[in-house]
Amino acid sequence: MQSLSLPLVTLSLALAACAAPPPAAPPPAPTASQGSYFDHTGRADVLTGGVRRIPITTSKGTFTVWTKRVGNNPKLKVLLLHGGPGATHEAFEAFDSYFPGAGIEYYYYDQLGSAYSDQPNEPELWEIPRFVDEV
After folding, report:
1. DSSP for 64-121?
2. Strand-pair partners of 66
3. What DSSP state is assigned to residue 127?
4. How many CA atoms lie within 13 A of 99 on its CB side?
5. Coil, strand, or helix at residue 58?
6. How far apart are CA 87 and CA 115, in angstroms?
7. 8-30 burial: b if 16+ Cβ within 10 Å, else e
8. Do the beta carbons of residue 92 and residue 115 sit within 8 Å?
9. Could you tell me the mean pLDDT of each successive run of 10 residues in the chain, 135 residues long?
10. d(Cα 80, Cα 96) in Å, to the nearest integer?
């Protein structure tokens, strides 16, 4: 019976090794382009996590709109525009899970009257041509 135990233990270990998932590979070292994706050197928004308030001039005065830049890619940029008035950039935050891995520089934006942008009580400003000019 003892001579049968060693082959059974060996067979059990071999089967367990086949069933176990392979060890995780170490993450690849960042390439120069990946490293530069998060390089904010010389950018005006370096200390704000990419957030900037951009002044816009309207017939009712100057207001600011909220924007946030993520990434750094001079060749591939996306501006995320929500519907509205009244919607916000928050519906697009899922892009944080996909765009950085693809190296896409992208911008969140809240139009005037929405979320983090100024909220003037000026109904005359809620016209499509004015929103187009704002962008």
Report:
1. EEEEEEE---TT-EEE----TTT--GGGGGGGGGTHHHHT-EEEEEE-TTSTTS----
2. 53, 110
3. -
4. 22
5. strand
6. 8
7. eeeeeeeeeeeeeeeeeeeeeee
8. no
9. 47 49 54 67 83 95 96 93 85 93 94 94 92 90
10. 12
Contact predicate 66/110, CB 8 Å: yes
Q: Which residues pair with 108 in a beta bridge?
A: 68
- Specify whether the CB–CB gap between 99 and 78 falls below 8 A: yes
Cα separation, 2 vs 25, in Å, equals: 39
Residue type at 82? H
Q: Give 96-107 pLDDT, tens digit per residue.
A: 999 999 999 999
Compute the Cα dihedral for 28, 29, 33, 39 and give only its sign.
positive
